[in-house]
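re: ur question from yesterday

yeah so i grabbed the chain u mentioned. its 272 aa long if i counted rite. heres the sequnce exactly as i have it in my notes:
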Amino acid sequence: MADTPPRVLTIAGSDSGGGAGLQADLRALFACGVHGLTAVTAVTVQNSLGVTGYVEIPPDVVAAQIEAVATDIGVNAAKTGMLASAAIIEAVAEVLDRVDVGPFVVDPVAASMHGHQLLADDALDALRTLLFPRATLVTPNLDEVRLITGLEVRSRADQRKAAEALHALGPRWVLVKGGHLWDDPECLDVLYDGEEFTEFLGPRYDVVHTHGSGDTLASAICSRLARGESVPEAVRFGKDFIVRSVAAAYPLGGGVGPVSPLWRLEGRVEGT
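ran it thru and got these structure tokens back, copy pasting raw so excuse formatting
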């Protein structure tokens, strides 16, 4: 009988196109050698061209999913994706005070790939006041930085200012992703713990198929936190993982295809 692998819980919405959301999380978690658990927050009607509708899961059902897996199977790390509403965020915060999920990564899915606001203002407030103070790490992109802090990031120096503003909201660590800093020839992600900045630099590929990149990065980071690694170690692994996954992205349907962790199944990297 094999040993039970580390368990990572994703609290996220379902993407019927399979490119992002909990489907992307589970795909990345599998590729990273951990067991994925889910608490579904919403069911979207979605394909490569966009989202045409969604139905929220009742907040008490979201909380019950989290409690069910945490109290029986156990959770070594957890992450959030699309949380849909203030009521769901409140339910998640409440249950996290009752069950142990280990290191907690908040990927504050608040903007579409085109930068449009996805969460109502009261849900953004709930993210700031309820989830950020409970987070081990938050991983916003630059559109989400703007919605959460009001700061427009136009340079690497602005990324550091944004990290400081986000850290003031209560998380232990902040990772400000630079993928949307389109004028920068490289992709710089800035990690901040309230005292020191750590920079993770990667190439900028000329690709349009980047659906699910934030989900994939946060899941890869969680897979390492679940193994007991430090936040900087986990982020370094996640950065390498997403760089390779963007390079392996593929077209899907008539719109934007997903980044792909399938490269990892081809044996290009040692270990799990």
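noticed a couple things. The beta strands are 7-14, 35-47, 50-56, 77-80, 104-106, 137-138, 173-176, 186-192, 197-203. also The helical segments are 21-31, 59-72, 86-96, 121-131, 142-149, 156-167, 213-225, 231-247.
anyway ttyl
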